[in-house]
Amino acid sequence: MSPRAPAFSNVVFFKSVASLQELPESDGEIAFAGRSNAGKSSALNALTGRRRLAFVSKTPGRTQLINFYRVGERSFLTDLPGYGYARVPAAARADWETLLGGYLKTRGALRGLALVMDARHPLTDLDRRMLAWFAPTGKPVHVLLTKADKLSRSAALQTLAAVRRELAAHGPATTAQLFSSLKHTGIEDAEGVLAAWLGPTAPK
After folding, report:
1. How many angstroms separate the CA atoms of 182 and 48, rounded?
2. Local structure of 57: helix, strand or coil
3. What three-state secondary structure class fits 170?
4. Mean pLDDT across the chain, nearest whole number?
5. Which is it for strands 66-70 and 12-17: parallel, antiparallel or unpaired?
6. Which domain does 185 fall in, by range?
7. 69-84: b (≥16 Cβ within 10 Å) or e
8. What is the tens place of the pLDDT at every residue in 117-151?
9. Is 121 inside any structural domain?
10. Which of 31, 59, 83, 168 is in the most buried spot, having the most CB atoms within 10 Å?
């Protein structure tokens, strides 16, 4: 059994939505976004201590819907469609971008964005575009540098420092940490940040 972050140990799958009209009533949500195959589903599984809560696919671009995972009576973690995978048909990409954009820009219950990046390839042009695009919402962003176990300790720390230097331009509400689903690195740190975003709506 993998270690469980206390606030997210009782998470259950709630529903998948394909349109903004299907969004559930909510008191608070944290969205997980990132490039396709950056490790969003693995990060969710690690945070909740569940091996198959979120489906981990070897095929990038598999997540085509917004998947809602309930963490309390009316609070959620959401797994968003991955962005930037070239083999996804253009029409499907356009639909996903409409859904993704509408959700991130207009969802009042959204408390913050967990932005997942592969530690070996952080801050791609698409990641930078997401940061700049989301910034006007004024909501916090926490970057999870996943697959940190693929780097040496010194290389991982250098990457983290470089990412934090660039993120500093976005203000103190944009933060970053190292994370490894495989080695269970950074789970408690991430849980602390994300549970604080949910505040009173966080599960007990």
Report:
1. 13
2. coil
3. helix
4. 86
5. antiparallel
6. 6-201
7. bbbbeebbbbbbbbbb
8. 999 999 999 899 899 989 999 999 999 999 999 99
9. yes
10. 31
